[in-house]
Structures
1.
Amino acid sequence: MPSKAQQRYLLASAVAGVAAAIRIIRRRNIHVPPQPLPADFPVTPKDVVDAAKRVRPHVHRTPVLTCHGLDELAGRSLKFKCEVFQRTGSFKIRGATNAALQAPENAPLVTHSSGNHAQALALAARSTNREAHVVMPRTAPAVKRAAVAGYGAHITLCEPTNKARAEAAQKKTEEVQGYFVHPSNEPRVISGQGSVAVEFLEQCSDLDALVVPVGGGGLIGGIAVYAKWKRPSLKIIGAEPKNVDDAYRSKQKGELVGHDDRDSVADGLKTLLGSNTWPVVRDLVDEIITVEESEIKKATALIWGRMKLCIEPSAGVGVACVLSEAFRARYPADEYGTVGVILCGGNLDLAKASAKLFA
Ligand SMILES: Cc1ncc(COP(=O)(O)O)c(C=O)c1O
């Protein structure tokens, strides 16, 4: 017969064990089936699953890498989904290909983009034997412009504002009777981008949270629709530069608001949420965390130095987020021990970027 003290110890151990098991079930979602999502979303989990199958022959299944040094800095295990190795150098080929494969027969594809979607659409058009017309801000990095031209797309330059881009693209669509593929708000683009999550969750069964850079919200939108259905307890956190914080402000206010068109070193994230991506961000994304320009540069340089991965600053935004004080405070490492970070792209002008990052 155990003594009173032993009984108390056994009881306390049993209670602690049950509590730990509940925590694990809640976090890992063991035996929790996929959950239905609101019916009025522009994209369903099935759209994402179908898109993942559709684009699979056309895109790379990118690797997930880890880095001991970064784990130490973050105080937890980080899993990096390396879309930096994706075709055209970013995840954008997924959504562009999904849209191109479903576009009206023979229609030229038209878009506006600061670069990564432009390259992706240009390649997707070439692979599906279509013409591509791309409106780019005149400030887009030369390396991105050259790549778009290299895939055979026709380029029209415009002023570097969201309004100027949209107007020029509309004009071009009418002129060539094309099929306009919005870089982030087009449902087929959103579901194509969601294929990142389909792969990532297949590759890693132990993620507690996912950090995703946010521009127009296509990437986080597709990821959230799939991940919150497949694994409802997984936290989805958007990472945004403070200078272009429309997603953060929209979440705070509960309605879609813009930003001040300030500049950011993360040029891929200067776009705005749209009518299709906003409801998903509003309802399925747990939180948006913003980071300063200095944090973005530091995090980007860190990945270059520690992982030898040439990511662009837009990808550095996710890394800066997971290393930020705000993230640590909101998502303590003892509860969120394994965090996935999307290294979304690696297209940059190396000479210019290294001068900026290491200045
Ligand atoms: C490298 C990179 N990361 C993230 C994003 C943001 O994606 P989304 O506009 O779908 O939010 C972009 C958008 O251009 C990008 O180029």
2.
Amino acid sequence: MNKFKENISNSVLYIREVFLLSLGLYSLIALLFVLSSSQLLFIALLFLFFDIILLNIIGGKRKKEIAKIKSTIKNIRENKLNSPDEISLGKSLVELEEDIKAMFLRTQNDIANLKKLEQMRTEFLGNVSHELRTPIFAIQGFIETLLDGAINDPKVNMNFLTKAGNHTIRLNNLLNDLIDISMIESGQMKMSFRYFNVKEYLETIYNEIYTLAEKKQLELILHPISKDLKLFGDKERLRQVFVNLISNSIKYTEKGKIEILVEEEIKSGKIIIKDTGIGIPDSDKGRIFERFYRVDKGRSAAAGGTGLGLAIVKHIVEAHGSNVEVKSEIGIGSEFSFRLKK
Ligand SMILES: Nc1ncnc2c1ncn2[C@@H]1O[C@H](COP(=O)(O)OP(=O)(O)OP(=O)(O)O)[C@@H](O)[C@H]1O
Ligand SMILES: [Mg+2]
């Protein structure tokens, strides 16, 4: 029934033509009773003539409509329209007009997204080259100085070689981070989820990273974790998350402590990494997960940071169906947390 109504409402466009046609038919039937055969032939020919005129009118109307649709599509294709309000096909084609408007909006969004992606790619390349340049220039500088004679100066030669060596480590770390980022973002990162014992797992990481805190005379505390608690995740990838978060806390804390806690919830374990460090300004909290974003570029670069750590952390935690939450107060400390399924 609805379909019938719809068809009728769509054909209203040709209502005059239909009425004209029926009027003709009525008259023909009426005349059948009163006219002779030669008169009827004449009338039939007359109607044929009117039919042709009628068809011509209908055809003209359709042509106009199609021309309107064509020119609208052409304008869209040639980017001549700025807003969907400029699209108008008239009363008879309201539905089509709505569809074309929706399509136009979508194309506009797609174009805007493409432009944004293009800009991000350019920015990314700029950032990468900038980050590569620093260690390469440093290594180049040390090698040139050594070749120019410093190699024979026992007071500096070892020092320069060690520094050059450190920069190659930085380069290597940067490249590894870049490979991770590109694998993650192109969806090539294979995850392998399993249940694992969190206490054992975090103790291993704690033992590996402990000396880093010790060097800065910071206390690294792993709070007691139930020995039976098992969480679900990709241990290898989560290692990156923990190492990044804990080393950030160590990097951005001058005095005090770094704590690792696991709070058991009904369906998950909440993992918290907390420090008494410099804190993150409110205005930067939303941006620290962006690639290459650093609050204090000077301080981070001095600590060997490139601003890729948290971008990787975010992706990995999201691949576990969770989000990283940040609480932080300047001069008091920061807290990063996320959940893993039990
Ligand atoms: N625990 C923290 N306390 C204070 N600031 C932090 C902390 N963690 C991260 N930040 C800020 O967020 C920025 C981004 O962190 P991210 O780990 O992505 O980069 P990075 O540590 O500078 O370099 P990378 O991790 O690539 O070596 C840091 O530069 C720092 O300004
Ligand atoms: Mg980091």
3.
Amino acid sequence: MNFSLMRLFVWLPTALLCLCTAVGAQTAPPTPKPFEDSIAQRSLACTHCHGAQGRAAPDGYYPRLAGKPAGYLYNQLLHFRDGRRHYGLMTQLLEPLSDGYLLEIAQYFAELDLPYPAAPPAAGTRELVERGRVLVMQGDASRQLPACVQCHGTRMTGVLPNVPGLLGLPRDYLNAQLGAWRTGKRRAHAPDCMAQLALRMSPDDIQAVSVWLASQPVPRDSKPAERLAPVAGLPVCGMAAITASATSATSATSVKTGVVR
Ligand code: HEC
Ligand code: HEC
């Protein structure tokens, strides 16, 4: 990794550290630590928002990164960098980074295996919650809505390499993402299955699936499924191929910085 990229990742945590030490200066003297050049150290710029080790922040908005499929995380980093998803502060961080480096970050967070907090109780009427369960588990053939589990896995923990799990996500985050697909603010690689689906869902459907999903416990083994049984007629969804150039850039980066995963 070149020096300017390193500075980028060092900058945010250092700025925060300065702030905290200035505030705590009267009580405890700061203990300077030598800078350790590892991807865990450099990803502190990310975990400041995404929670320690990418576990999600307690406020329910900053999503979890830990343990999500690497291909999915990689696609999202490309989406933010290239303008298919929008969050200015993150885009600024990602803009200067190469595909290879984004893949390396994605693989780092995907490999973390951390427990999830307990799910909150369902925040909706019994009818709404039941409607959510039926849509997720069975879909609605009359509106050409496939069951969510057909792509996201029967255990809803996602499917390698690029389909994320649906559990352990806060209701507000789910609502916001499905709403963003409806309005075209969030996009994925073509064919963008989620955009097609979200357009067939009413605001009440979105509310129902978000309420039900957010209240479901994450199973103890929260790892994504290896593969799905193919279902006839189910669309094939777009994803970025993890290209040879991205992979070779990764190994080049790893060799240069001596990153140990
Ligand atoms: C200033 C806060 C902030 C920082 C810093 C930040 N993020 Fe984010 N990130 C967010 C928010 C907010 C979202 C959700 C945006 C949305 O609504 O789509 C997000 C979404 C994501 C997603 C998509 C998650 C998913 O499940 O779809 C990934 C991946 C991600 N961030 C990775 C990173 C990485 C890697 C870094 C460090 C280079 C980083 N973020 C730094 C706030 C931040
Ligand atoms: C045909 C396959 C397919 C079906 C059916 C499907 N999804 Fe998805 N879903 C995907 C793919 C692929 C992605 C990743 C898109 C990307 O790369 O951004 C995704 C992503 C998502 C995300 C983003 C997760 C995050 O962490 O940001 C949510 C939320 C979601 N789907 C909800 C649903 C719900 C709810 C249903 C059922 C109503 C559903 N999906 C049905 C394929 C599918």
